[in-house]
Structures are given as structure tokens and as C-alpha cells.
């Protein structure tokens, strides 16, 4: 790999040396330098775009051209006339200043029929997709990775200039709103015409300029003309061989777009490890619902009472069988009314095998464990949206999102400390989220916004553990029968939540550069929590543990009424938005036959400041002081199983914690040389935090919730930075790092019931380096290297991960792609270490203008059997190192037909 890197650096240097530089300044007729003017050079012989540039804040452009060639160079700027000039290069650099004018006599007589690869119009960056393709791309993700300033992370999420893209649209219509992964993995690359990056995005035009939208980014895909008003897409079917059983994949993708309506249908059936939607994707799928109370000063989040069913790591497991189907639509009954929505169904059956060792247990014990799990998960998401915008003054919309799932997991655990254990988990959670928004602009000085959101959530986790040994906490469960060959214990839970958020905002424009925002809001939540524990005896009879501390019957209400005031003003290059909110909180929990009520008031300030150093260079500061409240899960005092070796009881007398957050973000995007820099640092301090009071006995623990003294505040300091640059059209490089330091406090309980504060610190570091090429008629390489250090101050874990990716389009019909990644996991003392690697390869054949494509693909060609992971438990001070079995090598032959 070192030799390859040196070779690429040599090629880059050689390319620079062979080019002729053409630079200068672009001005208007008054002599003012024009920033963001587009400059493009078309080779008159090949008719290809050999170079392009966008002027910087001083109007400077810079092109690298072939020597001894003739070019037509086009200069364009929004609002001024396009100018074309012809130049002939020799071997010397050329310097020439250009003046653009609104006078028609300045127009050049030669028309250049080419499109600028990258252009800028206001807050929108427009990429011409074909300019960045090399012939190996098959989906949107493949093209996005080649664009300057754009990245696609391993989860399929799009990041632009360090900001996560919140919405993907196609022809202005939402594409599975609330998730970008379905778009990146399924929209075909050959359908792309333009990719528009919409910065400072706000879909409600009434609030444009009134809110702080600098972090909001959306992407809109413009389709090629042949893809409009026609069905397009493809259908793939493949079969192959693998370990013990045959492999298959069926993957249809159909799309239809016209100005009135659109339909998208995606399907996937396979047993080769392709996961269009993982459990993690399901839980974070927002459906486009926003955090409407983000400026309210209160954090009241409804926790998920799920059973912690295992998620797949890197979409890999011992066996995975997937069935997936999704449909998205948009319909315009009129020019002012839009209906849209989607339905998604996913069914995954997985086998998971994990071998792990845990050190740092009390009495210097260590646990060696083998877990064998079988999972069946059925997930469903359904959304319906209506948006009515009859004029620029009025905006009305309604959204409803339904999430359903049916999850089962059976696990066999073999432990050197606890012998053999068998567990079953079942749950069918449901959530229904809906919002209603109304925005009205009375006149240029007065804007009103009404937003309300309702959440209904029902969860019914069922947990059963069958143990060889009497559980360590059996003495706490009054009525438990310890005289059994097997200890078979079960818990039923049911949690129901109704939560309503509502607020009214009034904006008054004091001046064209300042406004006053008054907010009246309310958050109300009502929850029910029921649970019961019973034991299955050896004779199969049921022993109900009816004591009050073994059961829960709790009702909990939370109410926050607040008034907020914010003042936003612009002065020079600065934007300031200070404010505060005044809250009245009321809580009441009913359990154990009496109520516990609480009421208090609090003032919470916040502050926002933006320094616009240049058009695409900003420094942003945010400060907030917030009250953090727990939901019913930590207030219920009856015992709850967290796991077969973990018992938890809540505390109804918990108080809220107070957190202060400071964040500083720097961003710079230079279109002149396609350089992007972003960095941020965040400090959080939380006092009176809700913590677990834990008694640890070997691998077992009994814990309860408590407020920890404010003298022992939790603190985190995190930062990240990234530098990226594209140059000479063919090269893209980046370097990034992330650092996270944390200090947490918990209460450890000794077996004599004495308490001590357990402070745990950790410092995690991650560094990554990436370099890629994008030639049209030569092989392309992407070299990457990441290095991470996780120091928990009792042990240190290291991971080295170099990777290389090869792409090559040749003979006008063949595409070859291959990716190799290597991982070296180890701890400081080398007592836990492992190396593993993965190699995939694909060769595709498709004649020009043919609708058929053959593909031969191999996954895990080196037949790696497992991957590794390390973790640290900050409560118990325990380190774990695990090996996770993955699917073996398999070869697939598939055929794709494009519509």
C-alpha cells in the first residue's frame, strides 16, 4: 500500500508539471471583483471540458490546461452576460483578466455547448452528474462520493460540508422523507442529471430568514429528460453458491416522475447479507418529523422500553435472510396542494454467534461467554403527508407516521461463571406520530406559526430467562422458590405513552435586519407502566411473585408550560440571537397507593451567534441551559429485568438534572480550489444527573436510579475536524479526526452495603485519511486509513484499518470494482488481539445502449470467519472484547434488466 501511495503522489505531481496554468481576475464594468463566477475551458479538438473553476472572494480563477492546445473558455455570472474567449496554449503559463458586462455587444460569437461541472446560484450548489462519472457507478451513492465537499458515511447517510443531509428529493418531491439511505442505495446513477445541494434549507418559506437555518441541508435530484414521464429503473435477479446453502437475490426498482405525481417502488429479497433497512435504521427513521421544541429549554424524551434485541454489526451476521419492500408516492391534486407518503416493510431472519471475554469484574474475575442467537424481526413504517400552500403568505401541512414491529429473539448463553442460560425476548411496539402546522404571514412585519405534535406509543416487552443457577438477586424477589433444578423466570411489561407538544410563535420584524420572537408553548405527557414477574417451576406450574416490589402499576404525568422571548439581529458580518424561556413544571406519579406531586418554576437562557467571515466561511457559537427530565421508566419502583444477570428498580423521588452546553463550529468551503474545512467543539456539563446505584457481584448487578450530588458533575468534551480538497478534477483527498473525553460518576455499592462514588473517565480518538482518483479512461483507486484509540484509563484499545478500492471501466462494456479492508484490533497489553480482513470483487458486462447487464460478484472472498469489537462499561468499569461470526464466502451471478 505504501508503494501505491507513492505512485499516486508521483502521478499527481507529474500531472501538475505537465499542465499550463491559465489564471486571472474576473470583474464587472465598475472594477468590482466577482466572487462565485463560473469559468470553464472546452478543448476545441476533443470537445471535452478539460478544466473548470469558480472564482474566489477576490475574483480570482485558475485553470490547468493541456499544452499546445486550443480552448474556448466561457465566463458566466448570474445577472451578467456570458463571455467566451479563445486561447491557444503553448508551454508557458497565461495570465489574463476578464470583464463581464450587461452590454449585449460584449457577447462572444462562439457558443459553447457544454455544462459547467459545478456551478453556484445563491445558496444552491449544482453538480452536473455526468461530469463526475467514470462508468462504474450504479447508484446515487457511487456518484455522491465523487463530488467535492460531499461524503457518504458507512450508514448510507449523506454529509455535505460536515452537515448531515436531512432530506432527499427527486424533482422537488420527497423521497422517503426522514431517511437518506434508501435514496443513496437505490436511485440509479444513469438517471441522474443534476444534483442540487440546498444550503440554509427551510421548506417553510414564511420562516425563511427568521430562524437559524445554517445547519440545514437538503439535496434535490434532477432527472435526465428521458427519465421523465416514463417508467424507469431496473430489475436484478441472481443466484450463487455459498457455505451449506445456495444464495439468491431479487431486487426490483421502479420509478415514475411527472409534474403531477410520482411513484417509487423498491424491493429486495436475498440471503447474501444485503440489509436495505436495519433495526438501527428503523429506530432512527424520523419520517421527517422535526424537533419542534429544540429552543424550549426542556429535554423530555420518551425512552424506548425495548429489550435490547441485538443489532447487526456492519450488516454482518452468521446468517441473514431479508425480505424488503417499499413504496413512495407524491400527488398534486392542484398547484397549491400536495399529497405524499410511503410504506415500508422489512423482514429479517438472522443467526448471530458471539464469543466474548469480559475483564475488570469484582474480585478480579473474568467471564468467558458464547452467545448463540436467532432473531426474527418484522418492521413496518407508513407515512401520509398533506401540504397546502395557496400563496406565499399561507402554509398548512399535516403529517402522520405509523411504526409497527414484531421482534423475537432466542438466545443460548454459555458462561464460565453462570453455566448455560436460555433466554427468549418478544415485543410488538407501536408508535403513532402526527403533527399539524400552520404558518401565516400577515404582512412584511408580522408572521405567525402554530405547530403541534402528538405521539402515541405502546410497548409490550416479554422476557424469559432459564438459568442453571439460582439468580444472585433471588433473595430480593419475595416468594421466589429457589429449590428448582432450573430457574425459569419471566417478566411481562406494558408501557403506554401519550405526549402532546404545542406552541405558537409570533415574529415581529423590528427592522429589515432584526426581529422579535415570542413563543408560548406546552409539553404534556401521560404514561402508564405495568409489569409483573412470575416463575415457571419444574412441574410447569406458575408461581406468581405478587409482592408489591415485584410488580409495577404506575401512572405518571408531566406538564411544562413556558413563555419564550428571543431577539435576532444582524450587524455587519454578525448575527446574534439571544433569548430565554420561563417555565412552570408540574409532575405527578401515582404508585404504591399514593401520589407524589411536584411543581416549580425556572428561567432558562440560550444564545446563538454567527460570524459570517466570508460568503462561505462561518464561525457559529451556541449556548443553552436545559432541564432534563426522565420518563416513567426510571420512576417505577418495582423490579424490572434488564437482563438475566441484571435487576433494576426506579426511584419516584428523582429530580431533574440541569445541563449546560457550549458548542463552537467553524466552516469554510472554497469553491475556487474546492477546499472544505469544518470543525466543531462541544462541552457539556450536567449536574444532579440521574445515575444508577449498582451492587456488582461477579457478572451480576442490582441497580437503582438516584440523583448524584452536584459536586460530582458529569462532563464531556468532544471535538472533530475535517479537511478535504478536490484538485485537477481527478483527485480528491481528505483528513479528519474526532476526539471525545468524558467523565462520569456512578455509585458503587459493596456487599456490606457501603457506598462509594465510582468516577470513570474515557478518551476516544479517531483519525482517518482518504485519497481517491476519478479518471475517465484509466483505473481508479481509493486509499483510506483509519486509526482509533479508546482509552478508558484501565485499558487501552487500538484499531488500525487500512483499505483500498479499485474501479475500472474498460473496453466500453466492462466494469470492475473491488474493495479490500484490513482490521487490527488489540489492547495495550496485547492480551486481547485479533486481525481480520474482507475482500469483495465485482465484474459487470453491459454493452453501450443495452438494457441487459451481467454481473459476477464475490463477497468475503478471503473467507473471514469473524470480526472483532471492544467496549467499556462505565458503570461497572469492565472491558469486553468480542468476536462476532459473519457470513462465509459466496459467489453470485446476476442479471439486471433496465427499463
Automatic annotation (TrEMBL):
<protein>
    <submittedName>
        <fullName>Carboxypeptidase-like regulatory domain-containing protein</fullName>
    </submittedName>
</protein>
<feature type="signal peptide">
    <location>
        <begin position="1"/>
        <end position="17"/>
    </location>
</feature>
<keyword id="KW-0732">Signal</keyword>
<dbReference type="Pfam" id="PF13620">
    <property type="entry name" value="CarboxypepD_reg"/>
</dbReference>
<dbReference type="InterPro" id="IPR008969">
    <property type="entry name" value="CarboxyPept-like_regulatory"/>
</dbReference>
Amino acid at each position: 500500500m505504501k508503494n501505491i501511495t507513492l505512485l499516486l503522489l508521483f502521478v499527481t505531481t507529474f500531472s501538475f508539471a505537465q499542465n499550463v496554468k491559465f489564471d486571472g481576475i474576473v470583474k464587472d464594468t465598475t472594477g468590482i471583483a466577482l466572487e462565485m463566477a463560473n469559468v470553464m475551458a472546452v478543448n476545441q479538438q476533443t470537445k471535452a471540458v478539460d478544466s473548470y473553476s469558480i472564482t474566489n472572494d477576490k475574483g480570482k480563477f485558475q485553470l490547468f490546461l493541456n499544452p499546445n492546445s486550443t480552448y474556448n473558455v466561457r465566463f458566466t455570472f448570474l445577472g451578467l452576460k456570458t463571455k467566451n474567449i479563445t486561447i491557444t496554449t503553448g508551454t508557458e503559463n497565461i495570465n489574463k483578466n476578464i470583464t463581464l458586462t450587461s452590454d449585449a455587444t460584449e457577447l462572444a460569437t462562439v457558443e459553447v455547448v457544454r455544462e459547467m461541472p459545478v456551478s453556484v446560484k445563491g445558496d444552491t450548489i449544482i453538480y452536473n452528474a455526468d461530469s463526475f462519472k467514470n462508468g462504474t457507478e450504479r447508484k446515487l451513492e457511487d456518484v455522491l462520493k465523487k463530488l467535492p465537499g460531499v461524503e457518504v458515511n458507512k450508514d448510507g447517510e449523506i454529509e455535505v460540508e460536515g452537515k448531515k443531509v436531512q432530506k432527499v428529493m427527486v424533482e422537488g418531491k420527497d423521497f422517503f422523507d426522514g431517511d437518506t439511505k434508501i435514496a443513496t442505495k437505490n436511485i440509479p446513477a444513469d438517471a441522474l442529471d443534476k444534483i442540487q445541494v440546498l444550503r440554509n434549507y427551510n421548506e417553510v418559506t414564511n420562516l425563511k430568514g427568521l430562524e437559524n437555518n445554517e445547519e440545514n441541508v437538503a439535496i434535490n435530484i434532477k432527472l435526465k429528460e428521458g427519465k421523465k414521464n416514463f417508467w424507469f429503473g431496473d430489475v436484478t435477479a441472481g443466484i450463487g453458491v455459498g457455505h451449506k446453502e445456495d444464495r439468491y437475490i431479487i431486487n426490483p426498482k421502479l420509478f415514475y416522475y411527472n409534474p403531477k405525481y410520482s411513484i417509487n417502488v423498491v424491493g429486495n429479497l436475498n440471503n447474501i447479507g444485503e440489509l436495505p433497512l436495519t433495526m438501527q435504521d428503523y429506530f432512527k427513521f424520523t419520517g421527517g418529523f422535526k424537533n419542534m421544541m429544540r429552543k424550549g429549554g426542556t429535554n423530555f424524551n420518551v425512552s424506548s422500553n425495548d429489550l435490547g434485541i441485538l443489532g447487526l454489526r456492519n450488516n454482518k451476521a452468521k446468517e441473514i435472510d431479508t425480505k424488503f419492500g417499499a413504496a413512495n408516492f407524491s400527488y398534486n391534486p392542484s398547484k397549491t396542494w400536495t399529497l405524499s407518503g410511503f410504506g415500508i416493510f422489512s423482514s429479517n431472519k438472522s443467526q448471530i454467534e458471539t464469543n466474548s471475554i469480559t475483564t475488570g469484574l469484582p474480585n478480579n474475575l473474568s467471564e468467558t461467554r458464547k452467545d448463540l442467537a436467532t432473531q426474527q424481526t418484522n418492521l413496518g413504517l407508513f407515512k401520509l403527508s398533506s401540504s397546502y400552500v395557496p400563496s406565499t403568505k399561507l402554509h398548512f401541512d399535516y403529517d402522520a407516521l405509523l411504526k409497527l414491529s414484531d421482534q423475537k429473539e432466542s438466545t443460548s448463553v454459555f458462561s464460565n461463571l453462570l453455566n448455560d442460560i436460555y433466554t427468549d425476548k418478544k415485543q410488538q411496539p407501536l408508535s403513532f406520530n402526527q403533527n399539524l402546522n400552520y404558518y401565516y404571514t400577515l404582512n412584511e412585519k408580522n408572521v405567525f406559526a402554530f405547530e403541534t405534535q402528538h405521539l402515541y406509543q405502546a410497548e409490550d416487552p416479554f422476557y424469559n430467562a432459564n438459568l442453571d443457577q439460582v439468580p444472585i438477586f433471588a433473595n430480593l424477589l419475595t416468594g421466589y422458590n429457589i429449590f428448582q433444578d432450573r430457574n425459569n423466570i419471566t417478566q411481562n411489561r406494558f408501557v403506554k405513552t401519550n405526549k402532546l407538544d404545542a406552541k405558537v410563535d409570533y415574529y415581529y420584524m423590528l427592522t429589515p435586519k432584526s426581529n422579535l420572537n415570542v413563543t408560548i408553548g406546552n409539553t404534556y405527557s401521560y404514561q402508564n407502566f405495568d409489569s409483573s414477574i412470575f416463575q415457571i417451576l419444574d412441574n410447569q406450574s406458575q408461581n406468581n411473585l405478587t409482592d408489591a416490589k415485584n410488580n409495577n402499576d404506575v401512572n405518571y404525568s408531566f406538564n411544562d408550560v413556558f413563555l419564550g422571548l428571543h431577539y435576532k439581529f444582524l450587524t455587519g458580518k454578525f448575527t446574534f440571537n439571544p433569548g430565554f424561556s420561563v417555565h412552570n413544571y408540574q409532575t405527578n406519579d401515582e404508585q404504591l397507593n399514593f401520589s407524589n406531586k411536584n411543581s416549580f418554576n425556572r428561567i432558562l437562557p440560550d444564545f446563538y451567534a454567527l460570524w459570517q467571515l466570508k460568503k462561505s466561511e462561518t464561525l457559529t457559537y451556541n449556548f443553552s441551559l436545559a432541564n432534563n427530565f426522565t420518563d416513567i421508566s426510571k420512576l417505577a419502583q418495582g423490579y424490572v429485568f434488564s437482563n438475566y444477570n441484571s435487576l433494576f428498580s426506579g426511584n419516584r423521588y428523582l429530580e431533574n438534572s440541569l445541563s449546560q452546553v457550549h458548542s463552537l463550529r467553524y466552516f469554510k468551503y472554497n469553491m475556487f480550489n474546492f477546499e472544505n474545512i469544518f470543525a466543531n467543539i462541544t462541552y457539556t456539563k450536567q449536574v444532579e444527573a440521574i445515575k444508577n446505584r449498582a451492587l456488582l457481584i461477579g457478572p451480576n448487578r442490582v441497580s437503582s436510579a438516584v440523583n448524584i450530588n452536584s459536586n460530582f458533575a458529569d462532563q464531556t468534551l468532544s471535538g472533530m475536524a475535517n479537511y478535504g480538497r478536490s484538485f485537477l478534477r481527478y483527485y480528491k483527498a481528505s483528513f479528519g479526526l474526532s476526539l471525545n473525553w468524558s467523565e462520569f460518576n456512578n455509585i458503587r455499592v459493596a456487599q456490606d452495603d457501603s457506598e462509594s462514588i465510582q468516577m470513570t473517565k474515557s478518551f476516544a480518538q479517531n483519525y482517518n485519511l482518504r485519497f481517491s482518483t476519478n479518471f475517465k479512461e484509466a483505473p481508479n483507486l481509493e486509499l483510506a486509513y483509519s486509526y482509533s484509540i479508546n482509552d478508558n484509563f484501565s485499558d487501552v484499545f487500538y484499531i488500525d484499518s487500512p483499505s483500498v478500492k479499485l474501479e475500472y471501466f474498460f473496453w466500453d462494456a466492462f466494469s470492475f470494482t473491488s474493495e479490500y479492508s484490513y482490521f487490527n484490533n488489540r489492547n495495550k497489553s496485547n492480551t486481547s488481539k485479533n486481525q481480520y480482513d474482507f475482500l469483495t470483487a465485482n465484474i459487470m458486462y453491459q454493452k453501450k445502449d443495452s438494457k441487459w447487464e451481467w454481473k459476477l460478484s464475490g463477497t468475503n472472498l478471503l473467507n473471514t470467519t469473524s470480526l472483532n469489537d471492544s467496549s467499556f462499561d462505565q458503570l461497572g468499569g469492565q472491558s469486553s472484547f468480542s468476536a462476532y461470526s459473519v457470513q462465509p464466502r459466496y459467489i453470485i451471478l446476476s442479471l439486471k434488466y433496465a427499463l
